[in-house]
Amino acid sequence: MEHHHPHHHEVANYNRAFAIGISLNVVFVIVEASYGILAGSMALLADAGHNLSDVVSLILAWGASILAKKAATAKRTYGFRKATVMAALISSIMLFIALGAIAWESINRMLNPQPVEGMTVIVVASIGVVINTITALLFFKGQKQDLNIRGAFLHMAADAAVSLGVVIAGLFILFKGWLWIDPLVSLLIVAIILVGTWRLFRESFNYAMDAVPENIDLQKIQQYLLDLEQVDSLHDLHVWPLSTSETALTAHLVVKNNPLDNAFLAQLQHDLHDHFDIEHVTIQLESIEQASLCLLGSNNECHR
Fold first, then answer.
1. To bridge 183 with a disulfide, which of 24, 106, 169, 236 should be the other Cys (CB 3.0-4.6 Å)?
2. Burial degree of 29 (CB within 10 A; 0-12, 13-18, 19+)
3. Contacting residues for 102 by C-beta, under 8 A, at least 6 apart
4. Residues 167, 126 contacting (CB under 8 angstroms)
5. Domains, the chain
6. C-alpha atoms less than 13 angstroms from C-alpha of 163 in its C-beta half-sphere
7. Which residues of 37-55 are buried (b: 16+ CB within 10 A; e: fewer)?
8. How many CA atoms lie within 13 A of 21 on its CB side?
9. CA–CA distance, 155 with 197 (Å, rounded to integer)
10. pLDDT tens per residue, the chain (304 residues)?
């Protein structure tokens, strides 16, 4: 038994978000890098580099979302759903690299303070806060259900936080002349963003390795199946992510009365979908006699 719930609406929902986010950030990267050079601000240049890496990540995430909806082929029977997982993993790695670069530059600036045009830094970074916050909000709703969208949200939220830190640093530089505050604020922001980035990396790596998604309780699923009146026992229960938003399950159920009617199977797939968010269900039914032969190793057709 196999059941599938299509999610073609997700691409339509986020096509606009990706298009707006990429367009706004490409323009801002050019503006920020230009003014960073004119103002002699390494903070603006570092932020522009960070924003550029995030533009690349947005493009990756968008492309993966589109690829995930492509039809399956004879060679790729699950289609390209895993593209969103790979995009989230690459996105997290790029975030690590960007954070490392910012931390490195911040330490260098603490050791070697340089004069900066505070007002230019404040104005340009403030624009960055607005643009990146707007872009992050475009992905806020979807980031709770889709790891790929969460990667895009984290990148934009990180950009907004970094730009805000640059604004604060610019204010202190302008009114207090504290050149050291710029790198200090940057290091604090890096530490905060690192927590979310590590979680994104850990989850996307687990998804790539077909681990049970964190929102799925395998023990509860097992108990639900065993509590069914028609089920005597079960084996070969597997749950894994097909993509960042779809989960699959396969299991062998040893049933007391075989064959069972379609109503049992329909209720089973309905419950697994509604209560456990499992969208692709494949169940193999076995009689108690067949299961006994499997345990004795006398049935070559048993799959364990």
1. 106
2. buried
3. 46, 50, 162, 186, 189, 190
4. yes
5. 2-208 (1.20.1510.10), 218-296 (3.30.70.1350)
6. 26
7. eebebbbbbbbbbbbbbbb
8. 34
9. 9
10. 444 444 444 444 678 888 998 999 999 999 988 988 887 777 777 778 778 878 888 888 888 878 777 887 888 888 888 888 888 888 889 889 888 888 888 888 888 877 777 888 899 989 999 999 999 998 887 767 777 788 888 888 888 888 888 888 888 888 888 878 877 877 887 787 788 788 889 988 998 898 998 888 999 999 999 998 888 889 999 999 988 778 999 999 888 866 666 788 888 889 999 999 898 998 888 877 765 666 555 455 555 4
Q: What's the token pair of residue 74?
A: 């004879």
Structure tokens at 253: 């159920």
